[in-house]
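Need MerR family transcriptional regulator's 3D structure for a figure. Predict it.
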Amino acid sequence: MDTDDRTWRVGELAQATGLSVRTLHHYDEIGLLAPSGRTASGHRQYDAADVRRLHRVLALRAFGLPLAEVAQLLDGDVSDVRELIRTQLEVVEEQVAAATKVQRKLVGVLTGLDQAEQPSAQTLIELIEVMTAMTRALTRQEFEELAESRKTAAAQLTPEELAAMTEHRRKAAADLTPEQLEELSSARAALMPEE
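Structure prediction for MerR family transcriptional regulator:
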C-alpha cells in the first residue's frame, strides 16, 4: 500500500515514529497537529498530510523553538519542505560534531575505567550528564526520573567527592566562552519538558 494513501491510528503513528501517544495527544490538544479524521469509534486517525506536518513540527522543535513558535511558523505556511530539510541537515551536522565530542569523552572515561576496578560515583554522574546532552527533549516523567536518579547518585557521594565534582564543574564553566555558555544553556533548555 502506498503510504500516501494509508492512515494511522494514534498508537500506530506513535509506534512508527518513536513518539509517545501522550505527545501526539498533547499536539492535538494545543492545535499543533490535529488528526485529519476519526474512526467510527472516535479514535484519532492521521493521514500522509498529518505525517508531513508532524515532520515539520519535529524539525522546528529540533531547532530549539518552543511549541508556540512552531505553531506560528507552520500556520504561516512552511511550504518548502526542502529548505526545512536543508536546515535540519545543518542541525544534524552540528549534532554529529557534538556527538564526536561525546565519543571522545566516553573513550576517555572507558580508558579511565580500564585502569580502575570500580568507577567513582562522580565519574558515573559526569558520564550520565554527557549522555543526556545528546538526547531529545525529555517528557515530564523522564525529567522527574532523571532528577531523582541524580539526587540518589549525589547522596551516595562522600563530602570530598561532592566538593571535587562541584569544583570540577566550576572550573569547566570558567573555561567556557560566552558563546559556549549560551550553547550549553540552549542545549539544556532543549531537554526541558514541553509541558
